[in-house]
Design goal:
This protein is of the alpha+beta class and 181 residues long. It has one domain. Helix content is 28%, strand content 8%. It binds iron/sulfur cluster (2 copies). This is UPF0260 protein F0357_06575. It holds the Pfam family CxxCxxCC.
């Protein structure tokens, strides 16, 4: 139930207390961290159903912000763009492990870099979660060339995305140095 207090007495955020189905439209939309991973083209093996990621991005994806450049009209321009529903979140096997919808559907909390936690839309890029500057536009790329664009990182969580923010190694070394002195 929304508004429930957590163990520390602070009000728990909505994604811990509200089911995907019960979220308001604004809450639902805010669960998207803006990574852009789901806007990459994927290859599906017709025999096994196995999914392979590519770094080939939808033509509407902004490679810097990692947001859709025409979100309200995307269905008309890109007919195979998927508008996620709670049911799809629970059944689509390829949703990235970092995806805010997938995390909440799996009963997990949102990580430090999620804009809803950090309050900063840049942290999803700083943590190496987003597709910023590592994708190519699909325009002009023929299907036969997709195999030259296979990548595995969209299905992974980078190290910086797992760990809470810590002092950089250099800073930690200097603290140890001071203690020894
Ligand atoms: S993978 Fe999930 S969090 Fe990332 S852009 Fe797509 S819907 Fe949003
Ligand atoms: S139309 Fe927009 S939301 Fe859909 S895949 Fe393309 S960039 Fe992503």
């Amino acid at each position: 139930m929304a508004g429930e207090a957590d163990r520390e007495g602070a009000e728990a955020p909505f994604w811990r207390t509200t089911t995907l189905e019960a979220m308001s439209e604004a809450e639902w939309e805010s669960l998207c961290d803006g990574c852009g991973r789901c806007c990459l083209n994927k290859l599906e093996d017709w025999d096994t159903g196995a999914i392979a990621w590519t770094n080939v991005a939808c033509k509407l994806l902004d490679h810097g912000t990692c947001r859709c450049t025409n979100y309200p009209n995307r269905a008309e321009i890109v007919p195979d763009c998927i508008s996620l529903t709670p049911e799809e979140v629970r059944t689509l096997s390829w949703l990235p492990p970092t995806c805010g919808y997938r995390l909440v559907a799996d009963g997990k909390d949102l990580p430090w870099w999620h804009p809803l936690v950090s309050g900063d839309p840049e942290t999803v890029h700083a943590a190496g979660i987003s597709v910023r500057d590592r994708v190519v536009d699909e325009t002009g790329i023929v299907l036969e060339d997709y195999e030259n664009h296979l990548v595995e990182w969209p299905a992974r969580v980078p190290r910086a995305g797992i760990s809470p923010r810590r002092p950089a190694a250099k800073a930690l070394k200097s603290v140890i140095g001071r203690r020894r002195a």
